Amino acid sequence: MENSTHYKVFRLAAYGDIGQLKYFYFTVVTVLYFAIILANALLIGVICIERSLHEPMYLFLCALFVNQLYGSTGLFPAFMFYLLSDTHDISLLYCYLQIYVLYTYGLTEYSNLAVMSYDRYISICYPLRYNNIMTPKIICGLILLSCLSSFFLNAILISLSLRLQFCGNVLDRLYCDNYSVVKLACSNTMLNNIWGLVVTVLYISCTIFPTIYSYVRILQICLKSSKETKQKAFNTCTPHIASLLNFSFGWLFVILQGRYETADLPPILRTILFVYFLICPPLFNPLMYGVRMVKIRHACKKVLGLNPET
C-alpha cells in the first residue's frame, strides 16, 4: 500500500476557473432544471389524475418520470452550487451520497426501460392474455423490483468504497462517480472491481438482453400481422426505443470518459458529455411521450384546460 492520507473532502477539478461566465452557465442550468421538473411533474400528475391512463404502459411511464426527477435532483442542486462557488470541495459523505443517487438512477432507468419493453412484448405478442398477465399486482411488483434491486446493489457498492484509503483527492469531474473515486485509492480495490463486474453482467443479462429479445419477437409478430397491428407497434415502441438509445448513449459517454483520456476535448464538449445522461433523457422523454402518445397528449390538454381536439 502506498502512503495514504485521511482526506475529508474531494476536489472537483472539472469546474476550473470560468470567470464571469459562471453566471451565464448557472442561468442555463437553472432553466434546464426547472424545465425537467415541470415536464416530468406535469406528466406524473396527469397520469395519476386521469383514470383513462391507469393502464400498465402509462404506470410504467410514471415510474420512469419519477426516477428522472430523482436522478436530476442528484446532480442539479450541487451543480448549480459549485458553478457559483469559488471552492469546489465536496465532503466524502456527500460524494458517496451523490454516487449512490446517480447510480441508483442509472440502474433503475435501465430496469424501467426493460420492464416497458416486456409490457410491449406482452401487449403485441399476447394481446388476448395481456390483462390476465399484467395485473395490478404484477405491475407493482415489477416497479418495486426495478427500484429495490438497484438500491440494494448500489448499497453494497458504496459499502465497499467506504472502506478505502486514498492517496489523492482530486477528481477531474463535475460530480462524484465511483470509478474515479476508486482510482484514487491506495488500498486493495479487488472487491470493488469484482462487484462492479458482477453488477454490470447482472444488469446486462437482466435488462439489455430481455429488451433485445422482446423487440426481436415483436418484429417477428409484426412481419406476419396486419397493417393495424404494425401501426400500433410502431406508435408505442418508437418512443421506447428512442428513450433506450438516448439513455444508453449518455451512459456510454460517461463510461468512455472514465476509462479514456479526454483532456484533448474542448471543455464545453467534455461538460456536455459528462452530464448528457442526466439532462437529455429527463428533458427528451416527457416531451417525446407527451407529443407522440395521443392519450397522454389529450389528457395533458384536458388537465391544462385546453381543447383536446386542437
Descriptive notes:
The chain is an all-alpha fold and 310 residues long. 75% of the residues lie in helices and 3% in strands. It contains 10 helices and 3 strands. The protein has helices spanning 21-49, 56-84, 92-125, 130-133, 136-162, 178-183, 190-223, 227-259, 267-292, 294-303, and strands at residues 9-12, 89-91, 170-171. Strands 2-1-3 form a 3-stranded mixed β-sheet. Helix 2 runs antiparallel to helix 9 (267-292), helix 3 (92-125) packs antiparallel against helix 5 (136-162) and helix 3 (92-125) runs parallel beside helix 7. The longest helix has 34 residues, at 92-125. The model has no long low-confidence stretch (mean pLDDT 87). It is found in: Cell membrane. It is a multi-pass membrane protein. Its main location: membrane. InterPro entries: GPCR1_Superfamily_Member (IPR052921), GPCR_Rhodpsn (IPR000276), GPCR_Rhodpsn_7TM (IPR017452), Olfact_rcpt (IPR000725). The chain crosses the membrane at residues 23-46, 58-84, 90-108, 138-162, 194-216, 237-256, 268-291.
Shape: globular
Largest sheet: 3 strands, mixed
Q: How many DSSP H or I helices?
A: 10
Structural class by sheet pairing and helices: mainly alpha
Distance, first to last CA: 68 Å
What strand order characterises the main sheet? 2-1-3
Given as residue ranges, the uncertain stretches (5+ residues, pLDDT < 50) are: none
Order of helices and strands: EHHEHHHEHHHHH
Helix content: over 70%
Averaging pLDDT over every residue, what do you get?
A: 87
Please tell me how large the radius of gyration is: 21 Å
β content, as a range? Answer: under 5%
| Total DSSP E strands | 3
